[in-house]
Records
---
Amino acid sequence: MSSPLIVVTGATGQLGQTLSQLWAESPLPQYQLKVLSRSALDIGKAEMTDAVLSELKPSVVVNAAAYTQVDKAESDAAGAALVNAQGAGAIASWVAANQARLIHISTDFVFDGTSKTPYTVNQQTNPLGAYGASKLAGEQQIQALANGCSAIVRTSWLYSEHGNNFVKAMLRLMGERDQLSVVNDQVGSPSSTHGLADLIFAMIPCQNYQGIYHWTDGASISWFEFAQEIQYQALQEGLLSKAIPISPIATSAYPTPARRPAYSVLDRSRVLAEFECPVEDWKAQLRLVIRQLAGKSAATL
């Protein structure tokens, strides 16, 4: 009898690359892994989704594919919805019809940022822009089509040694500039893909996950505070040769096409209660990624 198959969408994304990288060390020897790029499975094409999944017959689909260009989504709402809403719905339809399970990655952008305390899984959603609206629509598709066999994992401020993210952007700018200004009135929680991958590895063998979960590395900090810690650790690890001044600025001084939630800390208590997975302090998770980057050439930043 062949081993059950785990299919991960979004092979070239930060999470897809991390899952591939860590799979050999995961506690899941009884499973096979297949990570699919957009060329192998474009979730924005429902017929392709059905055909590919029907051929592979996975027992679990981890949907890490997404339209993540938050600002571009404001002028391309249809493109964001095609992937984040209809794409998620197509996977949910297949999973429900084929006795499989789904772990779907969502975002803190489903909230409007008006809360003063960490958002719980049951709190009212109210996205501020097209990206958040498309991700919320995807959640709703999954809940309508595959609620009994799916988990929606919302995360925030995702970063890794792969792809494009805040940590790598800050390191590049810190190496190029004499000073830097970073927004100090948006508060949230950084999430390393390593920590998120550990959670997914813990969830996969379970058959009873259902509904919405929140996962972050547990901090409640501003982008400015995050940038300060990035510089501190990068200097320690030799990734930067000198410190530069970092100044706090207001969101209003750095306008973007899409509005960001001013506060998007997620309450992860449900995950901690239901799953046994490694829990690292956010600074320890950042150190892991910084050390990964320190082992690469500067050209990869």
Note: The first helix runs from residue 14 to 22.
---
Amino acid sequence: MIAPSVEAVAEEYEGKASIFKMNVDENLNVPQQYGIRGIPTLVLFKGGQEVERIVGAVSREAIAKVIEKYV
């Protein structure tokens, strides 16, 4: 549902931020490890630590605004 927005943000921030998608059906332990209860969930890490989380379908602009705080 938000894949096009995530892909657009990944292109926009190429070289500034690394953006990865994960299929939770293929990685069943990761949602539990990070306490993810809803899909889609975007988790931002900086220096290996979670700094922010976005839950639910949001626009490309909303994703970029959050990333911009940390790059």
Note: The helical segments are 3-12, 29-34, 60-68.
---
Amino acid sequence: MYSQIDANRRKTLLLIVIFVVFIIFIGWVIGRIYPEYGYSPLFFAAIISGIMTLVSYFSGDKIALSVAGANGPIEKNDNPYVYRLVENLCVTAGVPLPKIYIIPDRAMNAFATGRDPNHGSIALTQGIIDGLENEELEGVVSHELSHIKNYDSRLMTIVVVLVGAIAILSNYFLRFRWGRRGSANDRGGGQIGAILMIIGIVLIVLSPIIAELIKLAISRKREFLADASGALLTRYPEGLARALEKISANPSPLARANAATAHLYIASPFGTKAAHGFKNLFSTHPPIEERIRELRKMA
């Protein structure tokens, strides 16, 4: 369990570093193509995307819960079984009790949100509450508590800022490039300048796709990390493994599935059919079979 946690943290850090280096490189390319503007587009993109993300940072949990159609937060008398299960795991994990919501949906799914453990929320579908045994539901809740404890919502907010910066840079470059005749640097750069220009245009055009792929890769690594952390919390990896098997066997999508919040859920809200090969690059979640295999290695 500890080796899984350490490995996934290292991989996430590596992906974040690659992300930041990629943004700096894009800014450098634009600065070389348009030296009269220096690196001001890079700073402009960072500021704009940062401001836009502040709203999601402080209100993203409310937005996600509203989009999911979650009811709550519940009190102990509303659902003593779920409330006590979450409460007991919070005591074990040493985290504050999050707000607990119920999604009136027969699909089997769950998600956690909140910028830190003091502002955490957990949402469980009625389908997952009714369909799982106690140890299995404990595995799911421990997975979601691990997302809160590992500050995954905060991390993904940072990632969204980076994705937004790249999208703004790309849009800025394309609009500016085709909206002018060309600077002296464009005309007099020679062969090296022409090669740099071609490379820069290709990279900047593709940069939003590359950024999205990195974001999805980080999301998948955080799922593995939450699986391992959740297994460490319950000391029973088989509970979460069996829960994932049941979720996989119930492929029904959520009635209110949304692409903007898909990465929050324990399994894809659009259905649990695993993505393999090239399709996996565009998935918010790793294949469930792979997650089950990794969990059973910890037993």
Note: The chain has a mean pLDDT of 80.
---
Amino acid sequence: MARQKGIIPISANRKALHDYFILDTFEAGLELLGSEIKSIRLKEVTLDATYVRLENGQAYLLNMHVKPYAFNTHTLVDATRTRRLLLNRRELNKLASASEIKGQTIVPLELYIKNGWAKVKIALAKGKQQHDKRDTLRKKDLSREMERGFKNKIKL
């Protein structure tokens, strides 16, 4: 994520870009407890096996690991607890209708701090098959080779 004014990148789910075609993206707030935001600001969070589930008209982020804050003196918070995503009703309805289509899912792409608030960029995505993944890597390699060729010609 390119650093913009007021946005501090925390964590990215690079594997999601490899495993899914991204159809649409949304920005969601996070409902956090106690010292979780302090751990997030220290970048002690992982999005590796994280996914989004819709239940009872709400979106929940499951399996996001937030390391417990070392100087927390109050209550212990489970590191991989389920966290509610804060989206407006129109976005929730769009996600609900689209995720019912076979092969489409909702995955988190990145976590960042925007103007002091923790935000998650989630995406409506369609799973790639093995041959699609190979095609993506092949195209990426070709574009990298072309860029190298252009750089070499400019230096001459």
Note: The chain has a mean pLDDT of 88.
